[in-house]
Amino acid sequence: MREVVIVEGCRTAVGRRNGVFSNYRADELFADVLQALIDRSGIEKGDVEDVIAGCVTQINEQAMNVARTALLIAGFPIHVPGVTIDRQCGSSQQAVHFAAQAIASGDMDIVIAGGVESMTRAPMFKNVGETKPSKRLTKQHKIVNQGISAELIANKWGFSRRQLDEYAYQSHQLALSAIEKGHYADEIVPIKVMDENGEGKIVDVDEGPRPETTIDILSELQPVFKKGGKITAGNSSQMSDGASAVLLMSKEKADELGLKQKAKIVARSVVGSDPTLMLTGPIEATRQVLKKANVSLVDIARYEVNEAFAPIPLAWLHDLQADVEKLNVNGGAIALGHPLGATGTKLLVSLINELDRIEGKYGLLAICEGMGMANATIIERIP
Hints:
Elements: E1 4-11, E2 15-16, H1 26-41, E3 50-54, H2 66-73, E4 82-85, H3 91-105, E5 110-118, H4 135-138, H5 146-156, H6 161-180, E6 191-194, E7 200-203, H7 215-220, E8 240-250, H8 251-256, E9 263-272, H9 281-293, E10 300-305, H10 311-320, H11 333-336, H12 343-358, E11 362-369, E12 373-381
Parallel strand pairs: 3-4, 3-5, 10-11
Antiparallel strand pairs: 1-8, 1-9, 2-8, 5-8, 6-7, 9-12, 11-12
Helix pairs in contact: 1-2, 3-12
Protein name: Acyl-CoA dehydrogenase
Domain Thiolase N-terminal: 4-252
GO molecular function: acetyl-CoA C-acyltransferase activity
């Protein structure tokens, strides 16, 4: 199998739902990221053999294969195809896996993987409408809202409301510190948006982190999913708008083109997990990907485990006996937001840059997914 490398990656800032990107089309937002990716890498658009995009709520501007429409908006030649996939919150991480598999097998040499989600303009579950789960499914599995799954996980692992709120507070503090230090500046593509007065504004900073957040404020928030429960808006990921992408190549092609390589894909995994607990998959996905990579968790310099809800990374930490000092060190989705289809490659771009900053060797990305699934990826920084 051929070695797969990541040559470039970038993302938009993440906007809050009904925030800075509320008047910006999702297909155009992804097109802007694709253009920036090409500009940063210096390759020809026509050399890209496929664009694979993650998107969960495929309606409105995100319907009709947003990967293809976005690449056409960005001025790619008509011979470049695109495909849009939905593996829930891990959609763009799965896009990376599919791209890497195509390259490793020899089918392709140059592929873009990414994702987009406007949770403002294509609200979550709008594509489901009034549809109920199949009775043939519910006879076999108890199907619940993800928030209820988070409640079940918090109770099963014995996490208190205080622990969840403390984790959420720390996410905001880490994110605010990272922004202040400029850790995200290089990876963000500035986007010009127009306000209600028709005046332009450049968006190049994540909108989600709240400097005013305190544990006391978080503790006053009411449970969202269950009376007397522990899961609130404050210890859950934020609904968000954003786009992200990475450029993958075979090592041979990158060498041929004389391109600097940022990281290589070492191993990939995807698992199914209990569809009722739903969000525990990153634990087993991590075990599998570590085995495939033939490394141990102590060898990993940084972990990005998506903060869909605070119990998810906490349960992952507990079961894998991982080092909390390596986890989501620049904040996570609770503070920075979770634009569903874009989150996988957003986190991957941030992970690559963090490894470069600390000169770390291995990084791990794991994301829980709706209906009980998870992807995990291990990358190795190329100095």
